[in-house]
Each structure stands twice: as C-alpha cells, then as structure tokens.
Design goal:
207 residues, globular, DUF937 domain-containing protein, YidB, YidB-like, single chain, mainly alpha, 11 helices
C-alpha cells in the first residue's frame, strides 16, 4: 500500500482548517474529501449556483471530465474564499492524471528524468530523511498541459503562476507518497491507488 491517500488526506484537512472533526466523523479520506468539496462548493456567492459544480468541486470536475472525456463545466462565478490550501487540493487530480497519461508511475518518473530532473526524482523516491527537493515552476510549465492549468486558474480566480506553484508543491509529495519502498515500490499498486483516489473524488462530484 502506498501513502497516496495519506498525503491527499493531509491536504484536504489543511483546506478544511478547523472543520476537520466533522469530516473525520464522516469516515476517513472519503468523508474528508466530501467535506472539502461540499464546503468549498457551497461558498459560491450566487445561491442558484450552489447546486451546480462550483468552487473546488467544479475545478476537480473539469479536470476529471477532461481525463475521462466528459463535458463537465464549472460556472463562471466562483467563490471568493478560494485559498492556497484549496488550490493544492485542486491540482491533485491534474498531477494524478498527468502520471496516468505518461504510462503510470514508471512512465512519469522516466518523463521527469528526461526533463533533467533525475536528482529531484531520486530524492523524492528515496526514503531518506529531510524535505523533498524542490522543482521550479519553469520545469512544471514544460511538463503540464497549459490549457488545463489555465482552466484551473480561471475557475479559481488566481494567476496561472499560482497554479504552477501549487503543482510544484504537490508533485514531489505525490511521487514521495507513491514510493514508500523507494526502488522496490510496487508500481502496479501505486497506479491502482492513483485510480482509486481519482474514482473517490469523481464519486463525490457526482453526488
């Protein structure tokens, strides 16, 4: 088992702030993600839009929709309460989808190394102590689809560089969480966990 669900849970708790206890009572990662989606989706200033996929829910829905070929669109008016922690959660599906599109964990690692990021990748995969090595935003821009990033930026009402910055913060943690046994990590298990998290998020968006 990888630690992917743990890092997603940590990010979700940060986005919830002081509302963690209610989320935990709903049951594990599913309850926490559900609370994040529900709370941020209901922050819309337009009451009639609260039943639609606004806020974080809309962003996740759009990303997942692009991944699955669906046509999910968030309303133009978004919550003014979108914060940095929420943005970190919003880019998680982009990162996970990017890993899938590159052939899973091994393919993503090879892609990163091909971009001259071998030392960073080795650090992220390593089980040694200390914080994960940083990846600069320029490298992220070379790796991730600009249209997806611009879509998230527009819906979150933040500059695109903030989205790239969020990805650069989340990507090392995701790779780290997917490789708890370093080079001996079961990549099939890691890819399965990626799909499980995407399915979990998608299920909440359909409610």
């Amino acid at each position: 088992m990888t630690n992917l669900s743990n890092i997603v849970e940590i990010l979700a708790k940060q986005a919830l702030g002081g509302q963690q206890s209610n989320a935990q009572s709903q049951g594990g990662l599913g309850g926490i993600l559900g609370s994040v989606l529900g709370n941020l989706g209901n922050q819309s200033q337009q009451p009639q839009q609260t039943q639609q996929q606004g806020g974080l829910g809309g962003i996740l829905g759009s990303v997942l929709g692009n991944l699955t070929g669906g046509q999910q669109h968030a309303p133009a008016q978004q919550s003014s309460g979108f914060n940095a922690q929420s943005l970190l959660i919003a880019v998680v599906p982009i990162v996970l989808a990017w890993i899938q599109k590159n052939g899973g964990l091994q393919g993503a690692l090879d892609k990163l190394k091909g971009q001259g990021l071998t030392s960073q990748v080795d650090d992220w995969v390593s089980t040694g102590p200390g914080a994960n090595a940083n990846i600069n935003e320029q490298a992220v821009q070379n790796l991730f689809d600009q249209n997806e990033v611009e879509q998230v930026a527009q819906q979150a009402q933040v500059p695109t560089n903030q989205v790239y910055g969020a990805i650069s913060s989340v990507l090392p943690e995701i790779i780290d969480s997917l490789t708890p046994k370093a080079g001996e990590t079961d990549h099939h298990e890691a890819n399965s966990d990626i799909q499980n998290v995407l399915n979990l998020v998608s299920a909440f968006l359909k409610k």
